Amino acid sequence: MPQHSRLASFVVGAFCVGHLYAQGLSQWKDPSTHSTRFVTRGQERSVEVLDWGGLGRSIILLAGGGFTAHVFDDFAPKLAASWHVYGITRRGFGTSGYSATQTPAERLGEDVVAVIDALKMNRPVLVGHSIADAEMSSVAKNHPDRIAGMVYLDAAYSYAFDNGKGANVNEMQALRAPKPPPPGPTDLASFTALRKYYERVNGFRFPEAELRQQWVSSSSGSVSKQRDFPGGASGFCPVALSSELRRNVR
User: Cα(27)–Cα(19) distance, rounded to whole angstroms?
Assistant: First the structure.
């Protein structure tokens, strides 16, 4: 096939995937109070930024591995009385763009700094859950003067504060608890039912917007299948991130 034909096929395919993804989300309105914008760093693809508004110093919420900023939809407004609250969906997930890299922690950290610059924040506080320790530690290492502080939420893994003696991510993953049963047909009948499933197995409900980021909605309104984000099978995963931090964060 000629090169221009292959390029045209790729562009059309990428457009169709993006269109279908947006179409699946557009039929439902997110009740959360945030606005949404996208920030681009140089030639890099854009990342999604949610803005819940609020008073006081800026605070940036960074989700755990596999999640988007919408996971904070119910929690973030509670902080708005004292902070101006933002959330970033890391690249490779949700509606943020994706491009491969050999240095994922540094790349994600530079995305955070790009958002700080674009929104003209004055030394915000970073709050990160789980694997978000990767980009937070990268920002602290490379741009300590750009932030006022960091809060690690279940994120103080050995590779976030590495002295070379902590357990590696493979050893930690080997200690996983038994997995709950997967959602059945009744749980997938609607996103309301899926929220109840997660509340039953986890003890809390995810915001519906986050579930709609993670799962495909069928034309009937039921839940079809989980989305396959490029970041999940890329270098933006615990093993690659921890390996990079072990090299660079001491």
Answer: 13
Tracing tokens 């790009």 back to the chain, one arrives at 114
For residues 96 and 45, give the distance between their C-alpha atoms in angstroms, rounded to a whole number.
8
Q: Label residues 18-28 b or e (16+ Cβ within 10 Å = b).
A: eeeeeebbeee
Q: How far apart are the first and last CA of the chain?
A: 50
27 in helix, strand or coil? coil
The token pair that represents 122 in the structure block: 């004055």
Start-end of H helices in 143-223: 169-173, 191-202, 208-214
pTM attached to this predicted model: 0.79
Which residue range forms the structural domain that includes residue 126? 28-179+229-248
Digit-coded pLDDT (tens) for 60-104: 999 998 899 999 999 999 999 999 999 999 999 999 988 777 778
CATH assignment at residue 72? 3.40.50.1820
**98 half-sphere exposure, CB direction, 13 A CA radius:** 16
Q: How many domains does the chain have?
A: 1
Would you tell me the crossing angle of helices 104-118 and 238-248 to the nearest 10 degrees?
90
Do 71 and 211 meet the contact criterion of CB atoms below 8 Å apart? no
* Phi, psi at 226, each rounded to 5°: -75, 145
